[in-house]
Structure formats: C-alpha cells, structure tokens
Structure to design on (257 residues):
C-alpha cells in the first residue's frame, strides 16, 4: 500500500526540507524574529551553520546532536520534526497521488505540525496559522474540484462553533477559561479543510488522545492537572489521522445513524 516511486522520494525530501524550515519558524516566530534572515546559526556560539552541516534529519545524527563548533547540544526535537514532516509528505503522496487534494493536505499538515509544536512550547496557536489556514482552506475548497465548498464552509462553522459553545459553557460553569481561542480557530481550520464530517471524529479522537496523555502526565508528574496541557496538538494529530486513513467506515459503524 506504500508504493515507492521517484515522487515518493521527492516528497520525502521536500517534507524534510520544509520540516527544517518549520524548526526555524517554531524557534523564531514566537519571538517575532524574521524566519528568513539571519541564516541558521548556533544559538550559543553564533557561528553560521553551513548547508552540509544542516542537512535535515541526517546532520543531527551525524553530529551526534551537537554544534559542530562549540559542541552545544541541539534538541532531538529538530530531527523528529523533520522526520515527521518527511514521512507525512511521502505518505500523503502515496494516498492522494498528484492531485489538488495532495497540495491542500501538504499545506495543511505543514501548518498543523508547525503550529502544534509552537503550542507545546508556548501554549499559543498563532493566528498567522489558524486564520490563514481557514482562509486557505476555504479558498482551496472553492478551487479544488475534488472538494465541495459548502462542505468546507459548514465544516468551518461547525468546527469553530462547537468549541466556542463548549468554551462558553465551561466559562459559565467554572468562571475560568478552559479552552483557548486558538483551539476554536484551529477546529474551524480543520473543518474548512476536512469538511464537516470530520468534526465528530476529530473531537472524539483528540479527546481520547488528550485523556490518554493526560493520565500518563499525571502519573509521571504526581501532581494534579490544573491547567497547562495544550489541546492544539491533539486536535492536530486527530486531523492528520483523519486525512491519513479512511476513518469514515469506522465512524459509520460506531454511529449508525
Ligand atoms: Zn555552537
């Protein structure tokens, strides 16, 4: 089912390069720094990293996770982000082929993965991702003959609306904000790209993942869960599962109405 042809390799490399770019965005965007200049440099010694020491995925292993010049350790997260992006791109190509939908899902997964890591670091989902994602998603549905614009529009409205209502109810009950505005916009974005039928699955799967990791986190930290775990990565993971796999038949079995 995972056929490898020259395009698979092309999309793997493209994903790895964009994963490398995502790492720059993740590091610089929350600090309001330019993602274009200056060139990649070591945060400790400031030396510019030449391209051959900056090859996605491989360079990190080759240098054993350290700066070539000053031996400052670099996080293992860099090659992980690059690998996830590379595998996602190659896999999406194998599922969708060279289609409009592939282009849309590549942009979508780049945005989701990048925004999720920013959310993990800073507990924010930047509007630059969610709001642009909604616009690009709706525009994509309009241009893409494989998609239906109304489906995307309803998906955006239900996605955003459902979480907005949950957040509002939570606020009325507890008088504190449990769900960030970023999550609301994120689910609106997911609905705009995946259509309204994706929303029930994304809500169920993300809650399941959140519960699983939440329990794991509580056991590990031996503290209660007050606030503090961002929900964006779970919503994003669920949306990626939705576009990676054909989950509709399972949803139809679980909810036969
Ligand atoms: Zn260095």
């Amino acid at each position: 089912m995972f056929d490898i042809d020259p395009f698979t390799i092309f999309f793997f490399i493209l994903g790895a390069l964009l994963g490398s770019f995502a790492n720059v965005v993740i590091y610089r965007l929350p600090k309001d720094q330019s993602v274009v200049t200056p060139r990649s440099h070591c945060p400790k010694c400031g030396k510019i990293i030449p391209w051959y020491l900056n090859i996605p995925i491989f360079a990190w292993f080759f240098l054993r996770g350290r700066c070539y010049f000053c031996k400052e350790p670099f996080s293992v997260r860099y090659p992980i982000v690059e690998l996830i992006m590379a595998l996602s791109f190659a896999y999406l190509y194998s599922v969708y082929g060279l289609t409009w939908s592939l282009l849309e899902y590549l942009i979508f997964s780049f945005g989701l993965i990048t925004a999720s890591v920013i959310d993990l670091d800073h507990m924010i989902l930047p509007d630059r991702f969610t709001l642009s994602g909604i616009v690009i998603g709706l525009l994509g549905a309009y241009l893409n003959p494989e998609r239906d614009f109304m489906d995307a529009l309803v998906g955006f409205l239900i996605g955003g609306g459902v979480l907005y209502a949950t957040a509002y109810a939570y606020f009325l009950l507890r008088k504190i904000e449990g769900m960030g505005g970023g999550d609301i916009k994120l689910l609106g974005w997911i609905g705009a790209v995946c259509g309204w039928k994706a929303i029930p699955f994304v809500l169920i799967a993300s809650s399941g993942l959140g519960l699983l990791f939440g329990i794991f986190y509580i056991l590990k930290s031996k503290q209660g869960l007050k606030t503090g775990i961002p929900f964006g990565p779970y919503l994003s993971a669920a949306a990626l599962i939705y576009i990676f796999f054909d989950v509709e038949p399972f949803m139809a079995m679980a909810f036969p109405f």
About this structure: The mean pLDDT is 90. Residues 125 and 182 are 5 Å apart (CA to CA).
